[in-house]
Amino acid sequence: MSKNPPSSVLRVLIALLAVLCLLIVVHVAVVNTPIKTLLNLQNIVTGQPRVPNKSPKVQGFTKPEFGHMTSAFQKLFDQGLEVGAQLAVYHKGELVVDLWGGVARVNNKDYQFGRDEEPMTFKESLLLYLKPRELVNAKLQEWFAAFRYVKSFFVPPPAAPPTCDGADNQVCQKTSTSTGSVVGYIQWFFGGASLDDFGASLKRGYLPLTGDSLIPLFSCSKVAESAVISDLASAKKFSLDDKISKHWPNFGSKGKEDIKIEDLMRHQAGLVYPDSMLTIKKLSNPDLLYAQLAEEQGVNWKFDVSNADKQMYHPITRGIYASGLVYNVMGVELGSYFRNEIALKHGLDMYLGIGPEDFEREKIVQTETPVLPQFFKYILQYLLGGLVPFSSRSKILMMGNTFDTLLDFEASIVLGFLRKTFQGKWYLNYSALFGILNAVEDLDSISSINKPVLLSLENLPSANGLSNARSMSKLGDLLRTGAVGGEAGKITDERHMDHGIGYEIAFTDGGYGHDRFYVDGLFGWKGWAGMAGGVLQWNEELELAFAYNTVLPYGRVGKPRGIYLMKELVNGLNKKP
């Protein structure tokens, strides 16, 4: 007698159990593997140059009383948690920590075809990303690279590449060059770039990171953006409690009538995403852009100022609307105002939109592609989110490294999305996702910020800043003392549930986050942090300004490396006699 076939429900349960078992196996395989090792694994699979294995020695200086920060920073490299990073601290108006270490890929120089250290022009860099032939060529190069790496398992490997112990201009990793007849024909057809050189500029090797290197800031840019708004408010160009429509013609329509400047800066304007994606062409035409945003764009959902759902992080659009305000008041884009009225006046090597001359002069480095195997450390944590606390979760899942253990609010993000869906507030989830994925053309991933066309825009200040930690911390100190922005922009609102970030957070009327890391036990700090992991904060009571930036993104709301360094800084300061 034959057995009855399993029911559909049973089949689903078996399938879910199989998926869970697979997740557990993969989790165990990667859980205590350093992210730098996982990055190299990913680079091998995708045909990218590998990061040198040797742990670099941190360089720079510290004042004697802050010497412990050198060993704290070095620990991140020794544990394989960094590729290239910078750290800087101001205390009582003096630079007391200025450290850097590791390697990075330079974004605006071509290190292949015998052209070491020969700068690419700004136009060439733009074409590298925009020209269809180059894009097709790059895709073919990826295919050929993947084939070569598969082949490398069956043939002896080439000689070891040079290390990063030499001069600053030494290439740490290069690929071999060979051109056969078929490859030569394809090379000619696609414009002369050898496929075996695979992407002279898209697949660059690693060079030593320096203290002067400019790293993408991501949302740390919002601090500079807020500095502009606070500076103009301090100069009485407008008041932060003014309605935006008072200074921006035709803005007061389609639900935007009562939105104040402080509402926008506190992420309480309901303008998280545009109805249609903003193209590069439109962003390059401010008159057209701001007229359309004023007249045609409505709020993403209806709410009043007392509504508990009014706050949602505007990851991209806050800066675009803030730039529209500045453009209508001052006649220039926000990025241009910042560069001329703040950065140059105070000696900051920082940009919110970098022009062609500066692009070719500066040493701009790339943010790495997110390390996909790293997310296998998080999936099971998301499934346990809200059920198992941080300490127990790290034990259950064998999380030997606390840097990879999600904070409780992070692990509960998925449950929060589900909860809002079942409550009929799906539009909040929709807004949070589209605020990132559907805001700006070509800005569709973390590493896409490396594109020169995006770095050049002066009206994308929420995301496309460039700087080094030294200038970041100096800006923080200028804001702490009121040398920039005066006292404007410092009034802190109460904490509200932020449906984009996933927990309660308070912002000042100028847009600075207040106690962004209170969940980590850090209080009295203002500023913000970036998607890749960078942190820019200052503390008026401790008279500190802290800046950390990295080329290796974790893509988390929590910033474990930056938080660790901030705690080391505060603990060391408390131990001083």
Automatic annotation (TrEMBL):
<dbReference type="InterPro" id="IPR052907">
    <property type="entry name" value="Beta-lactamase/esterase"/>
</dbReference>
<feature type="domain" description="Beta-lactamase-related">
    <location>
        <begin position="199"/>
        <end position="554"/>
    </location>
</feature>
<dbReference type="InterPro" id="IPR001466">
    <property type="entry name" value="Beta-lactam-related"/>
</dbReference>
<protein>
    <recommendedName>
        <fullName>Beta-lactamase-related domain-containing protein</fullName>
    </recommendedName>
</protein>
<dbReference type="Pfam" id="PF00144">
    <property type="entry name" value="Beta-lactamase"/>
</dbReference>
<dbReference type="InterPro" id="IPR012338">
    <property type="entry name" value="Beta-lactam/transpept-like"/>
</dbReference>
